[in-house]
Amino acid sequence: MSGMILLQNTAWLPEAASSIAPEVDSLFHFWTLVSAIIFVGVVGAMTFFVVRYRRRRRDEVPEPVKEKKVVELAWIVVPTILVLIVFAWGFRVYIKMYTAPPDAYEILVHGYQWYWEFEYPNGVKTTNELHVPAGQPVKLRMTSADVIHSFYVPAFRVKQDVLPDRYSSLWFEATKPGEYTVFCTEYCGTQHSGMLARVIVHPREEFEQWLESAGIPEDMPLAELGARLYREKACFSCHSIDGSPSVGPTFKGLYGHEVELEDGSTVIADENYLRESILQPGAKIVKGYPNVMPASYASLSEREVAALIEFIKQQQ
Amino acid sequence: MATQTIAAQKTAQSEINYLNHARGLKSWLLTLDHKRIGILYLISVVFFFIVGGILALLIRAELFEPGQTLMTADTYNHIFTLHGAIMIFLFLIPAVPAVLGNFALPIMIGAKDVAFPRLNLASWYIFWLGALTMLVGIVTSGLDTGWTFYTPYSTMTSSGVTWVVLGIFILGFSSILTGLNFIVTVHKMRAPGLTWSRLPLFVWGLYATSIVQILATPVLGITLLLLALERILKIGIFDPALGGDPILFQHFFWFYSHPAVYIMILPAFGVISELIGTFSRKGIFGYKFVALSSVAIAFLGFLVWGHHMFVSGQSATAATVFSLLTFLIGVPTGVKVLNWVASLYRGSIWLRTPLLYALAFLFVFPIGGFTGIALGTLGLDVPLHDTYFVVAHFHYVMVSGGLLAFLGGLHYWWPKMFGRLYNEKLAQIAALLIFVGFNVTFFPQFILGTQGMPRRYFDYVPEFTTLHQLSTVGSWILGLGLLLVAVCLLHSLFKGQLAPANPWGAGTLEWTHTGRLPSPHNFERTPVVTRGPYDYHLAEEIFGNGHGDGGGTPAVIPAQGQAQS
Ligand code: HEM
Ligand SMILES: [Cu+2]
């Protein structure tokens, strides 16, 4: 065990700043120690044999060595046992690593080429800066908008791929306030190595303060708010903004143009039409599309409706 | 000794051998002789290795300092991808089987040639067709996906993925045909008396490799074809935007590519066994285990692909099973190392260049193995995955398995291939430089990785600078060593001392039953085998009083190589 304590202080591993990190590190140290011992044994024996049994005469032929079955058996059994220990230990750490406590504070993570966006339960969003409280489990629910990324915080010893069109999750409990680096470790194109972020761990009380002050300012421009709502309210899941077909009509080029309705009449997509279509989706059905838009959007505030209209206007 | 050399020279001038029996380019390009095809492959893979190596030096040079120094991020991404793709598909996979295997396998089993000589030549042409197709894509639009082509990036990028993938698809046929050829050859063409338990371990290694080549390569072919179709026709298999599943690609890809690691490693195991057997003049400890475990590893290798995906979002159950299986395959691999070391015990060890490479292998490969255990361990892989730890790990495995074994084997069979010895001292210095350079290059990368440095990074945070610089300096030493090997072997080709038929005192047929250079059909008459490959005490022909076609030439030890006291 004294060997392990020695290894604990090597500069090999980065700072350990999460609740799981020390457990990973002990396993890492155990593995290092066992490997090093066996390695020294193997290379030592090899060196010794090479020196000791150098050929002396050109036609020297050594006596065949009787193969001892015990020896062979021993070096099959011992490594198998060691390896099973490492496996079981690694399994335990892994299960802990991927089983988030039920009360974890959940933050949404979006990966983009080439930045990270973080979204907190109260709607606050940050880019490339993840704020978390210390001493509380945090669960990241992650998805990517384009290719596969991977979210990696060396100081926390956690990593998880972030996939398009699917959620993956990761949890950790940061133990020390401070700043830690986030890397993207799944190759994602030109700026892969520039896709850096920071985790800022706040003392618990300070985190609440930060979260409050980071709320959306009242004076956020309408179009910007609209773009956010388009994502947050999942409009994008049925309406594209690049003209591609989906469940509902695309927003691209919608504003100001004529729309053909199910009953054969036509209407110009002006502000009033858009407002009606958001608040009462069933009122006017566009030809060729099913009447499936949820009515829940009726609860949007005036400002939010205005923001969405502004956003749609911009998609020309 | 001088008289022996003169005698050797005399016979050398008159003998008809596979190099001089027909001359001219055409006689080479249309040859059906497995030995000449081996040489054609040698020239080809060495060419690609040089290209891949120059790219490696460029990668390391860019990483000498943080920030942009030599090239843009985009160029860097192309370069590391090409380095990886070329090294894997155009060097590692063909190197040992297609060069050394082609040259030595038929002679080692006492056959005139491989079972299908025309197919063998066709494999070489298909290799070039595939290589050229790849190069078309690379030259016209580059390749920036990493050699693993992960979707959906590879379906979105505008680089030459389609061409390259088609090229690899074609290369696959070359690999499959070679494998098929070897399997039939080993089954059907062994000399009388050459039972399975007398088969040289190199032959066992190639045999196991061939199984993997035949079973795994089609999966890669289909996967890459699907990828090409996805790019051209947008059919929605892998691209989530089209309703596909990117993880599916990873499953398909690693189902091939993990076994492919064994395509690179198993023949290397064979080479190492030959080298240790010959230069310690002892049987390989646990011959049966070493032989059969190669075949077992070949099959088990198909069951561990998921260990590349512990953090991809596959289920924890799958991850657990894959982790366990990974260890079960790891143990026999480790045990082989112990067998090789034990083979040296009470041997008669002759420290020549090929053995130096084998010893370097025995140093380097376990490090690759231990770090492989770390990566197979669920909780440890999570932080280490896709960092420089992995880069170091696979270089320790592949460069030791691929490169060191290839160089060791090349130095070993060189006198048989070209009938000349090389300057032993120079070759040993080169081997030493390679060993030192290799470790200086890649060992720091383990530390970089544990500290969190991700792979495939054009740039890095300043904390990592020192270790990166060390690694880059190492790459120069390694490069120098490789250059020296080239100088040494080229010099031997033109100026080297003529080699005796069996310069190492080896016990396998290519040394004991052929002349200085093998004749076009290998043997005057089919040899009859009466002993195992490493039964030196039974092998009179090795020491000059035998009656084999080796002519009883005793092991001539080159001037500076006096067996030491
Ligand atoms: C002078 C010797 C070599 C040096 C300095 C070198 C260096 C490197 C470096 C720095 C990377 C990039 C790692 C990353 O960013 O992920 C890399 C990747 C790679 N190398 Fe090497 N390497 C060398 C030799 C080899 C050899 C001999 C092989 C195979 C025979 C090889 C196979 C690979 C592969 C497959 C990759 C992965 C590429 C990828 O990530 O897509 N390398 N090498
Ligand atoms: Cu990324």
Write structural notes for this entry.
The complex is a heterodimer of chains A (316) and B (565). The longest helix of chain A has 32 residues, at 21-52. Chain A is α+β, with helices and mostly antiparallel strands and 316 residues long. Helix content of chain A is 35%, strand content 20%. Chain B is mainly α. Chain B is built from 17 helices and no strands. The radius of gyration of chain B is 23 Å and the shape is globular. Chain B starts with a helix and ends in a 53-residue tail after the last helix. The chains are: A alpha+beta (316), B mainly alpha (565). The complex binds protoporphyrin IX containing FE (HEM) and copper (II) ion. Residues 53, 56, 59-60, 80-81, 83-84, 87-88, 91-92, 146-147, 391, 395, 398-399, 402-403, 441, 455-457, 475, 478-479 of chain B line the site of protoporphyrin IX containing FE.
Features:
heterodimer, A: 316 residues, 5-stranded mixed sheet, 35% helix, disordered N terminus, B: 565 residues, mainly alpha, globular, binds protoporphyrin IX containing FE, binds copper (II) ion
Short description:
By secondary structure, chain A is α+β, with helices and mostly antiparallel strands.
What is the overall pLDDT average of chain B?
88
- H and E string of chain B: HHHHHHHHHHHHHHHHH
* Low-confidence runs of chain B: 1-7, 545-565
Give the helix level of chain B as a range of percent: 55-70%
> Please, what is the average pLDDT of chain A?
86
Main β-sheet description of chain A: 5 strands, mixed
Number of helices of chain B: 17
Q: Helical segment tally of chain A?
A: 7
